[in-house]
Amino acid sequence: MTVHVPWSAAEYNEHLPPRPTGFDGPIEDKMEQMFPPPFSIPFPVVNEPCSLSDGARAILYWYLPNALTERRQVCNID
Question: Is residue 70 part of a domain?
Fold first, then answer.
């Protein structure tokens, strides 16, 4: 599965404030209006390989469950 967002990550980055905290309501609301998330609440549970790409077709995220064996992982995040 591939999910596309219509905006580009570079454009998103240009609109970020100098030190975003994620806790500034008005700024967060403005960013969400300009750059809507690909899903709304409730978010889907994804347990198959997928990717997220932006409007410039740059891959922003890959999810590859079980792609690395335990032996190949540097650390296990639980």
Answer: no
Question: What is the edge-to-edge ordering of all strands in the sheet holding 50-53?
Answer: 2-4, 50-53, 59-63
Which residue range forms the structural domain that includes residue 31? 2-63
User: What are the tens digits of pLDDT across the range 5-50?
Assistant: 999 999 999 998 888 777 878 888 898 899 988 888 888 888 899 9
Burial 33-67 (b: 16+ CB within 10 A, else e): eebeeeeeeeeeeeeeeeebbbeeeeeeeeeeeee
Count of residues for the chain? 78
Q: Of all helices (H) and strands (E), which one includes residue 30?
A: helix 25-34
The answer to whether 46 and 63 are in contact (CB under 8 A) is: yes
